[in-house]
Each structure stands twice: as structure tokens, then as C-alpha cells.
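SAMPLE LOG
Freezer: B-3
Tube label: C17
Construct: single chain, 245 aa
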Amino acid sequence: MKKLKSRFSYSLILLFVLSGCSNNLNNSAESTDPFEGLNRNIFAFNKSLDQNILSPVSTAYVKTIPHSVRNSISNHLGWMNTPSTIVNSTLQMDLENTILASAKFMINGLSLGFYDFDNNETKIPKKDLGSTLAKLNVPEGPFLMVPFLGPKTVRDFTGTLSDRQNLSSISSNSVNNLSLLEVPVNLVDKRSKLAKNIENIYESPDPYTKMKSYYIQNRRKNVYGDKYFEIKNSKSDLEFEKLLQ
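STRUCTURE (predicted):
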């Protein structure tokens, strides 16, 4: 219990620190890239790892593992991440999503998530602490390229760290160990799904800029939903951020 309280307190401290720091920054991550030089170096490092290790492994994964088995693995990985959606849906006071995610998590728990008893008919938007911070009007902050993890904003990177710490503190050791074992499987599974998009990025004249734009646009679409589509053609990112508040 003490461990849980300390981690929860740590998350709150991060939230307030992030809020205070980001308010002095341009709200737009699209145009705010003060660490571009470092980001480009990390992007080159991640790209090298991807092309030499992750891409060949994911290609072999698709060729050797039947589609039905890969689908079951994807279902299980999604099921393992559902608690984050439940917690953050609650924090965002999204009662409908909390109930649906909880029900689906419990029902699919009968198969440890490998089989979706709902046949994927109920669409449940994924929620994480980054989206919760967005609901609290915490700015995105600068764009970051994180080693191994890839593109993030300061807000989303903080949310990712806090999500993992808080969920690990309320899960059993066996579940946490299973989650750690599944990290490489999750990477391979996601890489196989994004193969065409990633190759398209690598083939562009400036892969780093295209990766940044691709991440930010998709992240905003997932976080803001319909609001993103309504105003994504606004003249500037600053106007975009103001309209969302």
C-alpha cells in the first residue's frame, strides 16, 4: 500500500511539474522541437535497430506464424493493456468507456484475452495518462524521440512512464513478470502491423520530419477524437490548441 501511495504521489508531482514547465512553452509540438539535433541522432539510432533487428524479426513473424495465431496474440496484448484504459477512463469521467472496457476485460479474461468473445464488435477507445493530461489542458510540450520507444511528446512520455509505474504497483508479481516477457512480442507485433507505414516514412526525403508529423497527427486524432477532424485544417497549431480548451 505504501508503495502504491508513493508511486501515485510521484505521478501527481510529475503532472504539476509538467504543467508548470509546459506553460512557458509554445503549446504546439508540431513547431516546438528544441531538441531536434539530439532527436535526429536518436531517430537514426532507432532506425538502425529497426532495420537490422526488428524489421527482419517481424517479417519472419508474419511469414511463419499463421494469421489466426497472430490475431490471438494481438488480442491478448490488447487485453493486457485494458486496465490502463479502465483507470484513465475513470479519471476522465467517461463512465460509458469505463463500464464497457471493464466488462470486456472480465469476459475476455476467461481466455486470458487470446479469444475475443465480443468478436471485436464493441469498439472501446484506448485511454492512457497522456490523454488524461490532455483533458486537463496540460500542453503537449516539446517533441521527443526516445531511444527504443520512438516518438513522443513530453506530455505523452510522462504519461507512459506513470502508467507503467502505477499499473505495476497494483498488479501481482506474476502479471508484472508476464508483462515484461511480452514487451518484445508486443514490439514485433506492432512492427508487423505498421510495416507499410514505416517503410513509407523511411523512403521520404526527410524521414525524421515525416515520422514526427505522422506521430503527432495520429496521436492528436486518438486523443481528441471528433474535435481533431473538425479543426485539423485550422491555420496554425496555436489556433488548434486554443479551440480544444
